[in-house]
Amino acid sequence: MRGKFITLEGQDGAGKSTNLSVIEQTLLKAGKPVLVTREPGGTQLGEKIRELVLNSDDSQFGDTAELLLIFAARAEHIESVIEPALKNGTWVLCDRFTDATYAYQGGGRGIDQSRIKTLENFVQNGLHPDLTFLLDVPVEVGNQRAGQRSDPDRFEMQENEFKNGVRNCYLNRSKAEPSRFKIIDASEELDIVKQSIEIALKAYLKTT
Ligand code: TMP
Fold first, then answer.
1. What's the gap in Å between 59 CA and the centre of ligand 1?
2. Per the CB 3.0–4.6 Å rule, which of 58, 73, 185, 197 could disulfide with 40?
3. How much is the CA Rg of the chain, to the nearest whole Å?
4. What does the pLDDT look like over 114-141, one tens digit per residue?
5. Residue ranges per domain, the chain?
6. 170 in ligand 1 pocket by Cβ < 6 Å?
7. Ligand 1 center to 81 CA (angstroms)
């Protein structure tokens, strides 16, 4: 049987890294074979593109080039990692996917959603996440948490207007697809966030 495709999304500073392992552990306990991966990244080419796209020192290029680089990384990731794993019955847990492109390149940079949709259709050939966790925090909370990092990347260093665009886009997408998205209030204490994720994931597992 084909595996399920689960993604984790949220603004910078929402606590993705910690909660990725909560999802992985819950799936493993439920006996699911899991592959954890990330975007941009997940392949040799993807990790090189990630360096280019995130590195704030020498990455001077326009928004369209950024969008295309992200989809180039995604094409390789889908073809060589995600699809083979899903076909093989492995559950794929991906730290960010195309919702992040709508949020960052669309909501943040201001690229028209229809241009992103065109690339999504072209590159993904019908592949969409089965379940998406959205860790939602007010921008100020995300800033406080991410602000503790010494070397902010090209997105972490953006103004609050960009970050509010990202958050609003995520929230709008989750409202448009309520059955795929589980919105988690990530401004709560870590234990409460963890519990909310476990409850939502266990409920999803019962439906599979
Ligand atoms: P992170 O994986 O540590 O959160 O860093 C990835 C960064 O890349 C994050 O700031 C969001 C950004 N990003 C995009 O701008 N568009 C995308 O499609 C993806 C997957 C990530």
1. 15
2. 73
3. 16
4. 999 999 999 999 999 999 999 999 999 9
5. 5-206
6. no
7. 18
